[in-house]
Amino acid sequence: MGTITKALNLLNHFSPNHPEIGLTEFRKLSGQDKATVHRHLIELAANGFLEQNPVTRGYRLGPAILRLAAVRERLFPARTIVAPLVEALASELGELVHVSLREGNHMSPLFHHDALIHGTRVYFDEAELLPLHATASGLAMLAFGPENLLPDLLKAPLPAATEHTITDHTQLRSTVEKVREAGIAFVDQGFEAHVSSFAAPLFGDQPEAIGTIAVALPTVRVTDDMRLRIKAALPRTANEVTEKLGGTVPVDLRRIWTNAA
Amino acid sequence: MGTITKALNLLNHFSPNHPEIGLTEFRKLSGQDKATVHRHLIELAANGFLEQNPVTRGYRLGPAILRLAAVRERLFPARTIVAPLVEALASELGELVHVSLREGNHMSPLFHHDALIHGTRVYFDEAELLPLHATASGLAMLAFGPENLLPDLLKAPLPAATEHTITDHTQLRSTVEKVREAGIAFVDQGFEAHVSSFAAPLFGDQPEAIGTIAVALPTVRVTDDMRLRIKAALPRTANEVTEKLGGTVPVDLRRIWTNAA
DNA sequence: CGAAAACGGTTCAAATAATGAACCATCGGT
DNA sequence: ACCGATGGTTCATTATTTGAACCGTTTTCG
Asked: Cβ distance B107 to B129 under 8 Å?
């Protein structure tokens, strides 16, 4: 692992619940030496990726990130485009919907919305990277994303997030194959206990998926009726999002989606 | 300059006009060896800070930035809070208004809005870092920001952006002193020819400025009347922004602002 | 109240990772 | 088929990163 990766990984420890992190805590979280962590923090701060709270001496995300995000969003206004469609689907289904983009061997949340009509709700952390093999989003990406994604992922052992997580290589391969045939991914408590999720791929101008749209809901609410509603709504919305992003759904997948409907 | 800084600086070459950059161009822009640049690009991409266009092989900003920006914005929703106030001031004055945060020895644009009511308009690039000594925003930060900011800046020679840029150390010191007394900064064509700007500081819970709000307009439109309108409106809005951000304007500056009004 | 643990930060020899000149591959234009 | 330009790779050399030990403050707790 290079120095750059080590430094950037420090940034991944931030989350909405944990917006400020001190030196010692960083040392624990990253497992690196204190001096190393400190120099990395200093350098990240010097570039505006972090800033230090002068009172607590803790570090938090800095303004450079917002500046770059504005550039990225202007180039490719995914968040802006996706937001209303996600909100509409969340309201229609009454459940949490999120859109995520692939970031290496993980899915990176871009936007999410929870209809909040039920007493129990799914916890979703926009800062947390989702593993490919344990989530519906991930399976959809493995099935319709870059060809070498699955082989690359299988080079390392698959960590189990829950006791339902698929960790067997052969089983993962066949599950991904099923997702390819179905045009939609389903995972039952693979990432968090009592949570199930469904996902469909999103495309840019290339015929390989760049992201996914997913519904996550408590397993107890996955009724036959809900299953049907999701299977109808998710491909429809995925197609809509793809088109609004200026992308194209590959013809064979489009055929699967229309036949299923 | 450490490896991390070199890598992060690559990201600063992106702008709305220049959203995708190839290897050779990066080499020219950064002045580093091709192999070095390439390894840095690969590592940034592996962490989701960049992604590669598979067709052109060019690099563009990646999804990790959006993910982190969402965390930062949730922690400190500056953009969201600031936007309506900037828009209101821009409409009131009929000119371009921007809010910027300090990022090391530069100001980093957070949000800007142009009223667009005039035929000529100021060009403003949200991705471009503003030098402290050449812009009104920068002077306001030097005057009301961290104490050691001005001494630190004076350790290096001051580059001239235009022929009006202050490059003399003594002159900069006295100019900053005047800004402290006036409570507001004014720069005439210090950064771009034919553009003048006014700026006032913004505060968090500490009594040192964290950002600035500024008006930038063609020098020809800086009439006595406009000057008065800006001098009244800018401190008022700066105070409002600071309060909405949960910060406090130091009492001595508040006195200057109210006396001037 | 005082000792001690915890935390942020720094130092410098040792070790590892970054560097860059040269090289290779591929593409588009002529 | 050639040439130039671009993206990408290699490997010995070099320079930067590394981390155990150390220091000064602040906070905790008996």
From this structure: yes
